[in-house]
Amino acid sequence: MEFDFMRKIYFLLFLVWCTNAVNAQNNVLNGMPMPAHVQTNNAKCRVVKSFSAAVVGHPGQRVYSATTRTLRRLDERVGLFFKQGNIANIDTSHNATLLVQVHQPAQLQLYEDESYQLQISDTQIRITAPTDLGALHAMETLLQILSVDAQGYYFPGVNITDTPRFAWRGLLLDVCLHWMPMDVIKRTLDGMAAVKLNVFHFHFSEDQAFRVESKVYPLLTQLGAEGNFFTQDEVKEIIAYASDRGIRVVPEIDVPGHATAMIKAYPALASIPRKYELQRYYGVFDPTLDVTKEYTYQFLDTLFGEMAALFPDAYFHIGGDENTGKDWENSPSIQAYMQQHGIANGHDLQTAFNSRLLPILNKYHKKVMGWDEILQPGVPKDIVIQSWRGGDPFYASIKQGYTALLSTGYYIDLIQPADYHYLVDPAPDSILLSDEERKRILGGEATMWTEHTTAETVDSRIWPRTAAIAERLWSAKEIRDVNDMYRRLDIISLRLEELGSTHLKNKAMLMRRLSNGYDTKALEVLVDVIEPLKIYERNEGDTMYNVFSPYTKIADVATPDQKVARSFRNLVDAYLVNPQVSVQKEITGHLQLWQENDAAFMQLVQRSPVLQEAVILSKNLSIIAGYGLQAMQYLNGKAQPTTQWKAAATTALKKASTQGGRCDLQVVTAIEKLVNAVKVK
Amino acid sequence: MEFDFMRKIYFLLFLVWCTNAVNAQNNVLNGMPMPAHVQTNNAKCRVVKSFSAAVVGHPGQRVYSATTRTLRRLDERVGLFFKQGNIANIDTSHNATLLVQVHQPAQLQLYEDESYQLQISDTQIRITAPTDLGALHAMETLLQILSVDAQGYYFPGVNITDTPRFAWRGLLLDVCLHWMPMDVIKRTLDGMAAVKLNVFHFHFSEDQAFRVESKVYPLLTQLGAEGNFFTQDEVKEIIAYASDRGIRVVPEIDVPGHATAMIKAYPALASIPRKYELQRYYGVFDPTLDVTKEYTYQFLDTLFGEMAALFPDAYFHIGGDENTGKDWENSPSIQAYMQQHGIANGHDLQTAFNSRLLPILNKYHKKVMGWDEILQPGVPKDIVIQSWRGGDPFYASIKQGYTALLSTGYYIDLIQPADYHYLVDPAPDSILLSDEERKRILGGEATMWTEHTTAETVDSRIWPRTAAIAERLWSAKEIRDVNDMYRRLDIISLRLEELGSTHLKNKAMLMRRLSNGYDTKALEVLVDVIEPLKIYERNEGDTMYNVFSPYTKIADVATPDQKVARSFRNLVDAYLVNPQVSVQKEITGHLQLWQENDAAFMQLVQRSPVLQEAVILSKNLSIIAGYGLQAMQYLNGKAQPTTQWKAAATTALKKASTQGGRCDLQVVTAIEKLVNAVKVK
């Protein structure tokens, strides 16, 4: 995984200059993830009706499909009605506009070569790659750099060589807490491929549901899925779809905790005999497998055997997180077993359990992964640790000799901004690691837990932020310019729509629904500056929401990383450093809009009472915008502030951090900065 | 199917008065289809957090599911977090807010009782229905009349008794010309249920593809579907989903023409030995089954037997349309057979074919349907005729003793306006029919052929116009007020979004794509007044499009029934009758916007050359808007027109009907009216 950092920076700077000087729509620098090496030239490969693609070398079906899709996706943008249909054979004429040369088809496995070279001249686009995986990545890069000038569409002259920094670049999708049907899975896989992610972590067993058909244990879905599950044929379809896009599918069956659905279906697995129902709320629950019974191991051996055959990937995830241990403590037979076997506590019992699962899964030729709770003294070194509880255990596990994967910092369900995730590095310079240790960092995984996300809103929780994480896992660690990341995130966001992502369109749709058929404008203005409560604040005490709750409210239409709010914060920062008139005008424009919006919003609430819960946000926004406007006047010396004014403003700003509809305002601190900048004599 | 028309009109008028007088957001009159009898009272049944639903009587699973869905859909609108989970049992307490009483579960079959009564008092909503089908319809009506006042959400006091005019209210969806995946099917079924349609006509065999798995003839999909087909499990899922919503699924296997995919998979079926490939273009093709071979009958017997078992509905559609007869004419063996058996021509041969299929399908307990071409002398009377080629053959078939279904006038793929479809009546007063004959009119079916429609655009071709057809098939024939239909269509259009329809959101999405990341405003202004070429004009000579063509262009973002254009036409008509200042201002506002829009649009085209094809539309719009503005000045006596001016305007208007991007302007005739109204001395 070599890369040439200084050379790259040099070219980037050169390109910035070229781009500004020559043509604002040359997209060489708009891609995400940023490639390792980019060399430009003045060529322009025009996209015309006779555009064609050909595959040479020793390709597999994957490259044929991907090249055909590339052709269609390109034509859907340029609208030229290319003549070529499906690509299904080697074409040795070498005359095609896009020539894809592949040395050999890849095995979908960790550390497979994903590198590629993309060369564009006036007459041809040449992709060369050791494996088809590289060729797929190259085509995604190609589609990202399509450019426009006065003569029309073209691909800019470039020589890109590229390879990922980390071999494991994943996204976990939880299909249990809310059901995610096939179309969600497929468009998620398409989006992943577009940003060069290569592992789909399929989280399908939970307290609320078990969502993959077992033919050996059919009750798992008959009693544990309420009709919403994937048949084995559908799982095969998902795996084939993913494989076609160069994405591995790693299954997770979470044991011994988070297993209420399994226990409801097969109560003999339970630690405590009681009536089991699927969990309807979200959080951490007590039902736990009885790991002292032989039945449990026979059951898991059979189930894992079936699932190991269904999922071809070499890795198998056994969860292991958030076992409360209470059911073990309350079971006399388990306590007796522990005493008999000298097992001191629940942690040790879980480690004993894991140690028995390991040979079972090894028997099925699987490598085992688990969440970082499984990292207890005595856990075998060949279990891969997925870290979610913080960076320290992650690096501790690496230093102890484990191979590990980072998810801490990539919990996209927690509604944190993209720049937060972007700056989390799996192998930061601040941690002293040997080369050997560094090699044991496989990469990372974004995690999409779906407590507060339905099929309608899940895309807006995954995209575009996950593209920033994808870049962190693919590109050089020195690529950390947050502003440039946000600039490119806006571009990739629109490109993801082409692949079916609903993150933009469902936001508009939900606003129409929330506005009850009336004009959405007042709602839009408010939504632009609010975000859902972050981390675990939205579901206070784990009691506000359950699986029947409506997820069509203002907290569902609001998204992370609200652009208007971010841009306002940047404007204020810029203004306070250098109070330019143009910036001042932009700021007051925003503030006036917000101040006046409340009247229109209140009218809308009369017509759509579901918005009532957001009234406090709208009122507070109006009030603090008013103070912001006054602050701007004072800052411009147009009036003289009083101590009373500043005290009142400060009080109002404090009040404005109150939540409404499980959201809060994202411009409070920026307005506070304006108020604080006002000097009272 | 009695109904009380004068009483209804009386109540409607009364309601209009009440509605205007009391509360503009009482939605009793906003429903679609309009119920048969509506009686209002002053009650208001408030929707509060403790809202609950219960089912009593002798319901089946269908009512439990539907009531649960109703609860969730309501909560997703009002956002109150109802406490009730899934409904799965009889609740004899009779205390629920919504009480659903069902006499017995329905068989999903023609002429099953679909009537219901819906009574709303201050404290309770009571639905009573002979079958669960009626209860399902009642719940859709209920969700349509949710109202709002200053105290919040309520259901208005009402006593509705309702029953459909026609027993067969269908929608054909062609999944062959373009692939339509499961999510399209499901959301289409949800939309159908919302407007009380009850037959899903599943058109899955064509020249371009065969899209339902056969286990007996697996090559049908292995060679005939390019990977895009429904497995038998998925078909069962579709049927269950439809059944859950009270919708029958009628399969169509189109024979002996439109059968290229079948022939490619099993060439022994062919009339002419040649190399067969799936058709890539659209239109009518020669490949035809050889109906003189015993193999063909054995094949169809086996295939129909398999499909008859898969699809439980009593009806089975054998297509029979658009057989060119050429392959039969060119086959020496077929010609010899015809001579030998005294068969005079292709029509007679097809009739002989149909006569042999009939007993095969009867053996599998199926009634047979076919397109109106099969209506030839000698065709058995128990074949149901589906008319698509015009009203005359339809009524002729009725008079000849056939049972028939109308699709002529309901071809929604042809982009005609909703009012055109709305006014087509399957049993109009203008046709003299006996009661007996009238009874043989089963109803009608909207047909969604998908040549020029992908999964991304199909919803905008189906909705909301199909709701107008649904009303025609359900409601009294006297309900024909086009303006009121359009008013309600806007409302139902938004309600259909709640069920997942993408007809609004994908329009916005396609505009973002077409604008290449730039502001979509100029494109929106243009798109608002253009529509795709209608009837069969878009695909000139059947050569412009094929299965690989991009359907992401301006003709795909443009929809039928553009509201801005329609409203402008209405404004002009109103103005020419009564030139009010307010109307004049609205008209000139539109014209100015259009005149000025071209500059912004041209800038956008520079950045997004895919829009180049629409430049002519934008230019012409700008030009004729200019003439329109001048006409308005002349009409206001502010200037004196010249003969030259009028001639120039007329020429420009003539030119403005030129297509661009397979669309045309929808405001030309309206502006022409303004110009024509100008008197030159």
UniProtKB/TrEMBL annotation, chains A, B:
PANTHER family: BETA-HEXOSAMINIDASE, BETA-HEXOSAMINIDASE A. GO terms for cellular component: lysosome; membrane. GO terms for biological process: carbohydrate metabolic process; ganglioside catabolic process; glycosaminoglycan metabolic process. Residues 1-24 form the signal peptide. Pfam families: Glyco_hydro_20, Glycohydro_20b2. Belongs to the glycosyl hydrolase 20 family. This is Family 20 glycosylhydrolase. Residues 166-476 form the Glycoside hydrolase family 20 catalytic domain. GO terms for molecular function: beta-N-acetylhexosaminidase activity. Residues 32-145 form the Beta-hexosaminidase eukaryotic type N-terminal domain. InterPro entries: Beta_hexosaminidase_sua/sub, GH, Glyco_hydro_20_cat, Hex-like_dom2, HEX_eukaryotic_N. Keywords: Glycoprotein, Glycosidase, Hydrolase, Signal.
